[in-house]
Amino acid sequence: MPKLYFFTLIMLLHAASTFSRHPPQQVSEAAGGYSTRRQLDTDQCRTGNPIDDCWRCDPEWDTNRKRLADCAVGFGKDAIGGRDGELYVVTDSGNDDPLNPIPGTLRHAAVQEEPIWIIFDHDMVITLNEQLLVNSHKTIDGRGHNIQIAHGPCITLRNVSNIIIHNIYIHDCLPSGYSRVWGLSPQFAISGGSDGDGISIFGSRDVWVDHCTLANCYDGLIDATYGSTSITISNNYMLHHNEVMLMGHSDEFLDDKNMQVTIAFNFFGEGLVQRMPRCRHGYFHILNNVYSSWEMYAIGGSANPTINSQGNVFIASDNNYAKEASFNQVTKRENSLSADWKSWNWRSEGDMMLNGAFFTPSGEEGAESYIRASSMVAKPVSLLTKTSQYAGTLGCKVGHEC
């Protein structure tokens, strides 16, 4: 084994064990407002992750929060969230009223018609009574505090655009039934219920989910369906879950053929089984993620999606049973015979396969076949030994680099 690969393996295995022992820290500090952007001269703190290098070196990040809106990459790069609106400070972690949201609550902020950048004034565990329907042009920014959404229905993006969800710990999400919730027109609407996803993206576009930790939800951690597109899922830490991410509603739903999703710089940690992601139709750029292990497969799909896997590290399980059951496979095609899926464009370029992991490519090899599944330049896998430890929620302290 080349020395560089051996060193990288040791570092990545250490990172995986560190995540297992020490979940991402959450730090309670007062959150500041927004001031004009300033040029940073802090190259020494940069990691090579283009998202983090855009804003994390700023010791005044809390007064320059909206700088984050300029830092998205990939297919969701145009998601500006609530950049053009006012700050809204959530002060009340309880009192969730789905029909008449109370000022100071997350729900009241999320349903406003105008652009809003949502922040929090103290550590909170928010348990929602019904799914949180987030309106267009919203940022939910948990930096500076331990912000959790848990033990109830979680976040739904339904037919909206320009959403940023950042630095939130989302876990133990539950389904919700049909109910009345506040809506723009009429003043109330009938919610169609939710499946128990951490974040459900339904018929929406220009969405960016960054630096969140997601675990142990009833259905998916992040699902995107019904024609959603222009999405980036980055720098998240996912753990203890079965069906992690579903991209595409069904094999028969052809509107998902235009879906484009970037999945970058995430850490897929312990206790994950499958769907990282599972894709239907559409175009998926999966790059610079670390897969520490899986019980069934990492990347799967049906209905001829285009999958462009670049610069990822796949570390297969040490479990002897998993090895005997061929769970070292990274890829899985579903609902198709080999005669069909052999024409699907799935490629692995610059990926590192460790501990017996293997990727089964198919279709064309030429770069021109992956143009619509290419959203940014992949970094070399050696970079991930430095960046993977920062996936998930960040322990940002006011007055310090984050």
Automatic annotation (TrEMBL):
UniProt keyword list: Calcium, Lyase, Metal-binding, Signal
Pfam families found in the cross-reference section: Pectate_lyase_4
EC number: 4.2.2.2
Pathway note: Glycan metabolism; pectin degradation; 2-dehydro-3-deoxy-D-gluconate from pectin: step 2/5
Catalytic activity: Eliminative cleavage of (1->4)-alpha-D-galacturonan to give oligosaccharides with 4-deoxy-alpha-D-galact-4-enuronosyl groups at their non-reducing ends
Region ranges (Disordered): 22-41
EC category: lyase
Cofactors demanded by this protein: Ca(2+)
Alphabetical list of InterPro entries matching this protein: AmbAllergen, Pec_lyase, Pectin_lyas_fold, Pectin_lyase_fold/virulence, PEL
Biological process (GO), any one: pectin catabolic process
GO molecular function: metal ion binding; pectate lyase activity
Free-text remark on how the cofactor is bound: Binds 1 Ca(2+) ion. Required for its activity.
Signal sequence annotation: 1-20
Keyword rRNA-binding: no
Ranges where the Pectate lyase domain occurs: 123-320
Membership in a protein family: Belongs to the polysaccharide lyase 1 family.
Protein name per UniProt: Pectate lyase
